[in-house]
Amino acid sequence: MKNQLLRFTLRSLLFYKRDYLNQTIIIAILAAIITGSLLTGESVRQSLKRQSGEKLGKTDILISSGLRYFDPSIADRLTSLQRIITTPILETDGYCQNFATGATALEISIYGIRKDFFSFHGIDSIDIPEGTAAINSVLAEQLGIQEGEEIIVRFRDTDPIPENAPFAPEENGENSKVLKVARILGTCCAGNFSLGISQVLPRNIFMNLDDLQDADNQKSRVNRLLIANPGKISESSIYNLLKEILTINDIGLSIRKSEVTGEKEIISDRIFIDSLLVGRILNELKKGYPVLTYLANSLKTKNGENPYSFIAGLPPDVISETTEDEIIISKWLADDLRSGPGDEISLKWYHQVGNLLEEREKKFIIKSITGNNVIYSDPSLMPEFPGISGSTSCSSWDAGIPILMDRIREKDEKYWDTYKGTPKAFISYENAKKLWGNLFGLATAIRFSGDIENEIIINTLKGKIEPSDAGISIRNVRISGEDAASQGVDFGTLFLSLGFFIILSCIILLSFSVSIFFDSKKEQVKTYYALGFRHSLIGRMLFNETAIISVAGAFSGVFTGYGVNVLIIHALNTVWTGAVQTNTITPGFDFVTVIIGFISTILIAQVLVMIRLRNFLKRLGSDSKERFVIHSSKRNLLSLILVSIPAIILSVVSVLSDDSSVLLSFTGGTLVFIALILSIKQYYLTGLKKTLTGSERFYRLSKRFYSFNPSQAVTPVIFIGAGIFAIIITSSNRLTLSEDMLRNEGGTGGYLLWSESAIPVKQNLNSETGKKEFGLYDPEFKNIEVLQCLKLQGDDASCLNLNHIKAPPLLGVDPAEIIRRGSFSFAAVKEDSENKNPWMLLSDKAGTDIIYGIADQTVLQWGLKVKTGDTLVFRSEKGKLLRIVISGGLKSSVFQGHLIIGEKYFREYYPSVAGSSVFLIDGENEETEQMKTLLSDRFSNYGLSVESASDKLASFFIVTNTYLNVFTILGILGLILGVFGLGFMLIRNYDIRRKEFALLMATGFNVKKVSKYILFDQVIILAWGILTGTLSAILATFPSLKSSNVTSVTLILIMVLAVFFSGMAILYFSVNRVKRTDLLKQLKKD
Amino acid sequence: MLKLENISKSFPQRGIVLDNLVLEAGEGDSIAITGPSGSGKSTLMNIIGALDRPDSGDVKFRGNSILNLSNNELSGYRNRNIGFVFQDHLLLNHLTIRENILLPLFAEKISSNEYTEKLSYCDLLAERVGITGLMDKFPFQISGGEAQRATIVRALTGKPSLLLADEPTGSLDAKNAENLGSLLVELNREFRITLIVATHSVDMASRMALHMKLDEGKLKV
After folding, report:
1. Which B residues in the span 125-154 are in contact with A, Cβ-Cβ below 8 Å?
2. Which of A430, A706, A840, B158 could be joined to A684 by an S-S link, Cβ 3.0–4.6 Å?
3. CB contact, 8 Å: B46 with chain A?
């Protein structure tokens, strides 16, 4: 029995092979689109993962000290302790130029490496000697440079002393080197090494580590440690191992001995010792005490004034106890000021506020003159200020503060010659901490009373210092990279959505095709019934036939899907590169994805078949005459009138009004769409009313068929109309720069220029000195306003990055300035912010180590996948967890890709970020181009890139616009496919109506007239569909069409013509087929 | 009026169907052609009606061969000279009976006067066959006998000289078949239309003036 059924099924398949072939083709197209889209998603994911892996090379785990440095010997000790392979590197930013041509590359990654860097990555043949560099091919191409030629590299200073720490030497934070390009490296040779997460290839320079180190400082420092972890040792184990071997020397602390007191002391190469470390050391070594020495601008009593003296803060058990208002002064100072105990003394010093200096003052009462305690005469109480310590005279100090040389007297120079930095006054440590404790630390030294060996200090502290106390963190970068790729933009879903019209067309076509096919089998099925076949058996037989077709279609489709995937990837790497920002995506194949595509297609097809089959079997019992229902046109006419009135009113208002709202136009357009659909229905329904007499009787004759079957006219009109409507509406969402975006509340914030510097700029460019220093008083800079933003590097979270980003770059911004200008607007604000401007919240704290942040809404939604009110966790420079609560989501702005926090808190949590790297600049509009040129020139040492804010904003539109282009193109293809499908349906329809056409032939109609008879209404339907979609969409998008843009009009034209001509082509083809079909034979048969 | 000279027709599957067949029909003749299924009755009717072409021989209408006519000319020939009545009434369900009847008038351009004249003629025919009250109904709203009568009116709308009826009573019950047979004969007499009926029905054949049998590809009286 089963064999017999199978034979029936196969026979039926053979007999109806043409119908089944049609269905197979439709299902194959459906499978190809679904599988192709899914494979595209998989290809992008695989490419991102591959790129992430290629960039990391052998790196599995990263130990990073962020903005700080550590001793590279940690790498060797870790390697010797555990079987892991490590290599230390010094990563910094900068820019470079082709020395010969001057071609410049900004925003490059610079790596100081040891010889073992390349062997770590499994390449033993590459060595970068001092004075040479290896660059990757991307950079080489940009610079137009060959091996053996020279480049000049300017890089961010790697001095351990934070540039804006008190008394840091005043340099511009930039170093440069001329290096010979020894190698140009491709992907295979770690050339594209990167620890960042992005699909865009980096521009890399690899230098000898020694070339990156400060020439004055012989000690080698790095800030990253790469670990290859084939043994899959856990991060916590590596962290514990690191803690175990970490010594104070590794994190920039050293021990020295006071020549005067003989005491040992720990000092830091950052001048100030972090509070966490101070606490940790004092906890472990009870004999220790903190010292905080600071430089006073002046010490003044009523009798005299002394300039530039060091004041030391010491605990009460070291010096005589003093209250908050008491000070002990040296004999030398007492003599100089002609003052003594009980006298009032005024102390002035510079306090660092951000990168500004603020002179503060405090009055003390002289408690006593220093006694015999040797500590009072200890010059080593002065920290190792690099610009002061080695100076031969006061006048040669580079103290990082303004020194008024004319205030320095002969006796001051003599004091320096004799006593060096020996403090002239002493206050309690607690008092000093209050006055001079800062973000960089609370002590300049930790001293140990009594005799203590260096080894004891080192060994006691070994294993006791948490690496995080020194800002060291550990991260599995391989997993992070893979996760970012896996959770990145899902091109599978994206292309399924973009190919919506093709999928929809296939589904509609398949539905029609199956329905018509079942109808054609009506007699066969009736025979089955007559022979006593059970309903379920007949259903199963028909289902089995279509299931075989579904499997065959899906099977061939999934392999075609791979071809679709290859095509899409090719397009993404070329014409649609705007969506991926790279040309390195490669097509991939994934068996599971193919299976998913295969099963999904079969499911869709078979569900559709089941629905159609059920309807077909249900209808079988009913009398065929019931299908001829005389439809009343009254209800339709009433609906038409009811819809037309508001449609006309809204459309007229929308077209005539200068500032018609989008909603008004859209509603008007949609109502026009409905009205036009009702009109075509009305046109055909009224065909029943009149008898076919009069001059246009022939055309009304052809109309009659649709009067009985209005759905056969209305459905194609809806399909074509809705397709065109949806495509035009969607494409009208193309993002273009509007006047609104250039206003203060727009995405540019009203600023003219966006610029970024490779080297941070410490100066305040709105201040007089800043303007003077960079020549911003020139006429071109009239009314210049600069919003300076501090920046902590991170992974670009804008739409230009396909990966899922968790740590975007942080920008520290002064919210007051933005509030004052009323710059930018919000798309979403945190719900419980009590109507407070989210910018204002940037100056508030939500709790301990909890601050507020702002980002573009698109970044929040797609890049970071969070919403307002959510919290992002960062690690501060000191290793503490910093929680950032999202207070607002900006409407599309130039800040896309960044997370903005208040400048105040940026400085608190990332004090080592010395200056601003991002600038929003406003000025005279007509001077924009001139300003761009001049700024690039004036800030050439900082590697400043300048672009207009509007261009910056527009650069983010490219992704959305590319998606819209893809949608439009695939939409038009889908529509054309749909139109072709409708043609195919017509052919089937002709088959059904063949008798009718044959009769016409018998009664004397010639072929031309029969063709006319068929074509007349088909052309009306096609044209009406195009008119419906186009007219309603134009009305719906009238405001945007009015304000823009030739592209939209061209697109509409192309689409209309494409649909019309493809429609006409298929009509011609189908009518031609009617000609060829021998209708007379049909008649003879009957 | 109609002359078939040595008509032969064969089909690959069926072999020779018509073999040097000869037939002559004058104005107002009524001829019944009978024969077993597959004997070639319908093939012969199709050749007479210019729906098919013979392999050899000639079909002359009023002295002129119709086999030399182009497809368009054949359409005109059918429209002006031939009326068809099929076994299945072949009325178009989406047209009213009146429109179905008027269908042949839409095939070619005719003047308003002629149209009006033929319209009146149709009304006359409708009245004659007793379907006046059904003119505004649709085919699915009337009975099979009524539909077949409407078909006859449609066949006569163009005032043809020759009415070809291929198994006209095949789908009717006995009573309706008898009525239709009588009607065809009456119309043949009243309007002097040449009537050729292919039928299995002996009763129908006996009503015709001439009864011919198609056997082995030849017509025998």
Report:
1. 136, 138, 140, 154
2. A706
3. yes
Cβ atoms of B179 and B152 within 8 Å: the answer is no
Q: Which domain holds residue A1010?
A: 628-732+993-1086
| A688 and A797 inside one domain | no
The rounded distance, in Å, linking the Cα atoms of A850 and A843 is: 12
Contact between A701 and B106 using a beta-carbon 8 Å cutoff: yes
Find which of A996, A997, A1003, A1010 to mutate to test the B interface (most B CBs within 10 Å of its CB). A1003
- Residues A1086, B93: C-beta atoms closer than 8 Å: no
Whether residues A847 and A928 fall in one domain: yes
Residues of chain B with pLDDT > 70, as a percent, come to 98
- Specify the pLDDT at position A626: 47
- The parts of chain B modelled with pLDDT lower than 50 are none
- In this structure, the answer to whether residues A405 and A454 fall within a common structural domain is yes
- Record the tokens describing residue A551, joined without a space: 């499997």
User: Is A480 part of any domain?
Assistant: no
* Residue A274 DSSP symbol: P
Question: Maximum CA pair distance of chain B?
Answer: 49
- Which of chain A's residues have a Cβ under 8 Å away from the Cβ of B159? none
In a domain, A71, yes or no: yes
Say how many domains are in chain A. 5
Predicted pLDDT at A598: 94
Which residues of chain A lie closer than 8 angstroms to B66, CB-CB?
A: none
Report the pLDDT value the prediction gives residue A763, as an integer from 0 to 100.
Answer: 85
| SS3 per residue for A621-646 | CCCHHHHCCCCCCHHHHHHHHHHHHH
Q: Are strands A850-856 and A881-890 parallel, antiparallel or unpaired?
A: parallel
Please report where in the chains the tokens 């720069």 appear, as a residue. A737
Residues in Cβ contact with A912 at an 8 Å cutoff, skipping those fewer than 6 apart: A66, A67, A68, A162, A163, A164, A165, A440, A877
pTM of the full structure: 0.78
Which domains can be identified in chain B, with CATH numbers? 27-41+78-220 (3.40.50.300)
Kindly report the number of other CB atoms within 10 A of residue A395's CB atom: 12
For chains A and B, CB pairs below 8 A equal 89
**Ranges in chain A, pLDDT < 70:** 1-5, 8, 170-174, 214-219, 354-355, 530, 621-629, 658-660, 688-700, 833-835, 984-985, 988, 1043-1048, 1073-1086
Residues A640 and A757 in one domain: no
* Domain shared by A596 and A619, yes or no: yes
User: Is residue A719 included in any domain, yes or no?
Assistant: yes
